[in-house]
Amino acid sequence: MERDEIVELADAVAPHEGIASGIGTTGYGAQIVIEAATSEEALERAMRVFEAAAARAGLPVWPAVWAMPMPEETGFEDFA
């Protein structure tokens, strides 16, 4: 993925406190914040947001290979 493509993705996920990754790789990804009553609802909404952001950035449509809801109380350092 080229820098400009990932910057476009970052811009598209920014309204959801998102960050994007993938410069210099063969794939792309993002972390976004979604508020929801359940993990299942959060994951469903997050996937819609991610797919729309990828389309807005003009990225190829690929199936998601990994998605994980994370409770607000869990810090990202637990997954480093």
Comma- or semicolon-separated keywords:
2 helices; two-stranded antiparallel sheet; 80 residues; 2 strands; mainly alpha
Share of residues in helices:
25-40%
Radius of gyration: 13 Å
Counting H and I runs of at least 4 residues, what is the number of helices? 2
Distance between the terminal alpha carbons, to the nearest Å?
23 Å
Indicate the mean pLDDT: 90
Content-based structural category: mainly alpha
* Shape type: elongated
Beta-sheet strand percentage?
A: 5-15%
Spans with pLDDT under 50 lasting ≥5 residues? none
Q: What assembly state would you assign to the polypeptide chains in this entry?
A: single chain
- Largest sheet, described in full? 2 strands, antiparallel
SSE string, helices as H and strands as E: HEEH
Strand order of the largest sheet: 1-2
- Total count of domains: 1
Q: Count the E strands.
A: 2
Secondary structure: elements and pairs:
Blueprint (H helix, E strand, L loop, with lengths): L2 H11 L5 E3 L7 E3 L7 H18 L24
Antiparallel strand pairs: 1-2
Helix pairs in contact: 1-2
Describe this structure in words.
- The chain has one domain.
- Strand 1 and strand 2 form a beta hairpin.
- The two termini are 23 Å apart.
- A two-stranded antiparallel sheet has the order 1-2.
- The protein has two helices and two strands, in the order αββα.
- 19% of the residues are buried.
- Helix 1 packs across helix 2.
- The chain is mostly helical.
The gist of it:
The chain is 36% helix and 8% strand.
